Amino acid sequence: PGKKVLIVYAHQEPKSFNGSLLKIAVEELTKQGCSVTVSDLYAMQFEPRATRNDIVGHLHNSEAFNYGVETWEAYKRGGLSKDLVEEQKKVQEADLLIFQFPLFWFNMPAILKGWMDRVLVQGFAYDLSKACDGGLLQDKLSLFSFTTGGGQEMYSKQGIGGDIRYVLWPMQHGIMHFCGVKVLEPHICYAPENVSEEKRKEMLVAWTQRLKTLWKEKPIDCSPEWYFK
């Protein structure tokens, strides 16, 4: 109770299966006494492109634009654009970050990747001398909850897609672990569009059940072995 949760949600349609998963998470976690904030990226018309507009005022180097350097410098002097400051504040306050999205081309949708690109700037989320276990967002948990188009057998070592964990490596390890965030087991709903209504209901019940005991879970071992063994 009293925990703060940020759900970063990337789906265009509230009546979608992802929309149902979001609704369940908000209801269940609120019922537990958590305070839940949702960044509904499509509804917010969140800008996914990392551009000069993310810096308010002067540039550190007006001769040649380097996004990483400029956002780092802007962060230090409080010169990031308003939308980034708002998202960073939500991240800063959260004990748990849940990312809810459909898998597109073995990856998160562009709007969510853009959120990662723009919000998790150097100085705020990581410093090169303080990455991974020393990352700047320690003491936070994250959970990737997503749907796939292909069935579970497609995402196995023998399947055409390879192990689903390979897909999770850049997201969980390359972004979250790099920033010091601990990672809970992903929650994957395989091919909800291709299964019976009954099976979909079971998936929603499984998510509800998992959320009930979420705070008791241990994070995964963030090592290459988890992904590639």
From TrEMBL:
Enzyme class: oxidoreductase
Keyword Metal-binding (UniProt): yes
Localisation: Cytoplasm
Domain Flavodoxin-like fold: 3-211
SUPFAM superfamilies: Flavoproteins
Cofactor: FAD; Zn(2+)
Keywords for the protein's UniProt record, in alphabetical order: Cytoplasm, FAD, Flavoprotein, Metal-binding, Oxidoreductase, Phosphoprotein, Zinc
Enzyme Commission number(s): 1.10.5.1
InterPro entries named among the record's database cross-references: Flavodoxin_fold (IPR003680), Flavoprotein-like_sf (IPR029039), NAD(P)H_dehydrogenase_qn (IPR051545)
Function field: The enzyme apparently serves as a quinone reductase in connection with conjugation reactions of hydroquinones involved in detoxification pathways as well as in biosynthetic processes such as the vitamin K-dependent gamma-carboxylation of glutamate residues in prothrombin synthesis.
Protein name from the UniProt record: Ribosyldihydronicotinamide dehydrogenase [quinone]
